[in-house]
Structures are given as C-alpha cells and as structure tokens.
Amino acid sequence: MKITKSEFGTTSQNQGVDRYTITNAKGSYVNILTYGGIVQSFVIDDVDVVLGYDSVAEYEKNTCYFGALIGRCGNRIGGGKFTLNDKEYVLSVNNGPNHLHGGLQGFDKQIWNAQIKGDGLHLTYKSMDGEEGYPATLDVEVVYALDDENGFYIQYKAVTDGDTLCNLTNHSYFNMSGHETGNLEDISVQIFADAITECDANTLPTGKILSVKDTPFDFRKKQPLLSRISEENEQLQFGYGYDHNFVLNGEGMRLVARCDSAKTGLTLEVHTDQVGMQMYTGNYIDENMQGKHGATYGFRSAVCFETQGFPDAVNQKDFPSVVLKKDETYETTTIYHVVK
Fold first, then answer.
1. CB-CB neighbours of 288 under 10 Å
2. Amino acid 20: pLDDT
3. Could you tell me if 109 and 34 are in contact, meaning their C-beta atoms sit under 8 angstroms apart?
4. Element (H or E) spanning 178, and its range?
5. Per the residue annotation, which of 171, 179, 244, 269 is the catalytic one?
6. Active site residue 171
7. Which fold has domain 2-339?
8. What is the pLDDT of residues 102-151, one digit of tens each?
9. What is the pTM for the complete model shown?
C-alpha cells in the first residue's frame, strides 16, 4: 500500500484541501479528500466505481453527500430532537421535519486532519460541544486502507468527554459498471437481511420491523436491483425507491451484501460489524448532474450501502442504542471489497 499526497484546491473560506491517493500492488487506487473525508475515486482495472466531482467548489454545493464521511449521527433524527439524560436537545433540521446526516454543517463539510501511517491514512476531527446541537465534545478518527486484494477498509473510532450520539458511516455512491454509466440497469444485488425498519412518509422509522418476505425488499437471493423498484408498495412510495435501513443478519464482522455488474464483471462485497445498512438508489440525484471527468449523473445512477446504527434510534426504545457514553470508545469497521 502506497500513499501519496497532492493539493486539490481551496474552499470558499480559503481553506486548503488535499487529496491522498492510496494504491495497492495491483494498481488499484482510492482517492481521499481532506474535505469531508470524501472518497473521490475507487478505481479497479481502470474502472472508477464511485461517483464524484473534479473540484472543491462542486463538493461544497453537493447535496448528495457524494463519498463523504457522515456524522455526528448518520441518517435521520425525527423532528431534529432527542432526549438524553432527561435533557432535550434540539438539532438543525435539514430534511423536511428531520435532522439528516449530522445537520447543515456535518462531518461531510469539515476539513479533516490527515496523517500517513503504516496501516493507512488516518483522518481526525474534533467535533466541539454544541456543534449542530449535539452535546459533549467528540474526537473522531477514521482510517482508510486498501489491501492487495482490493479490500477498501474504513475503520471508525470515537471518544467523548460526555454522553452524546455517535453513528458514523460513509456515503459513497457505487456503480460497478463505472461511475460514468448513468444507470443501474446492469446491476444486481444480494443483501443478507430478513427485515427492514418500516418508515413513514418522511422516510423516518416508525419503530416497526418488517419482514422482507414476499416484498420488493427481499434481496436474500441475488436479483437485478431495479427489477421490482416500480411495484405498488407503500414503502417504495415513501422512499421514492429504495432508501431503507436493512436489519442485517448475524453479528460481528461478516459479509452483508453483494453488488455486481454484468457489464464489467466486478462485484462489490460489503463486510461490516454494524447492525444496519441503508441501501439508497440515488433517487434524488438531479438529472444531467455534471460529475467528474465529464460524466453526467442522474436519477438512480448509483447505489449506496451505508453501514450504520438504525435511523432515529435515539427516539426508538426498541432499536439498538447509538448513545456513546463518556469514557466509552466507539469502534466499527466496514470493508468494501471488489472482486472479479
């Protein structure tokens, strides 16, 4: 694993942004930006499988979270409010009535400190007490690494000086046919999950767990990703397609999903120790959006596999907790492994 550094540009606030390239023995590589900890490119056999932009300015305007690190609490929090230790906290609201992906200036909009070490690229960020409404100061470290078998590792670690919420993820948009393809027609998916968390019209969990059996959400056997996305189904209508948290089978580090392309023969294997994974089919990507290297993106041109704690878990007593207590350490790992 070789890591090199180059300048990528400056923000509108005149902050410098660096790009780090992690290359393995096969010549595969990942580009990481210090702005938002963004995964700008993931290239295998000359196929770039993630969506992205060519400039800092485009990322600053980005509302899709292309490739970004997400925090302090990923996904939605209902009404932008939660109660912790008998105190109510009010967060910024940026998704209808909900707080989404850390708020208006979440981790995706921050400049991360970067350091090259033997085990990978280490990004760190200190989220101060009160940032976006969250209590306590949170110190976050994310390690990116690429092994020689095209396994892209994302290791998350965080500690806090007081009780708070912590639910970190990465928001890369994958198209295993190539980022420039513009559609998901050649993509098939398998997800090892027997259930999803039911959502309402605002894509917020109701607290109920729904079996995927006999529904368009049953990906336990591989199927074309878009084959049932247009069926009459209330959950699909609420999500405008797939934008749902899958309740992953098993515990510990395990294979939870596969995504392959009939065009390139590349398969993405998602491994994680998390309890949930949001599969999102790019339903809100603007038509004719200009991406990197002259590519044009649009409606459902890529798919996200966001490993996570359950959405709105802090307001759902039966969901696994996303509260990080003082003196505890948050640690989780996800591997995006590409095979051919």
1. 9
2. 98
3. no
4. none
5. 171
6. yes
7. Beta-galactosidase; Chain A, domain 5 (2.70.98)
8. 999 999 999 999 999 999 999 999 999 999 999 999 999 999 999 999 99
9. 0.97
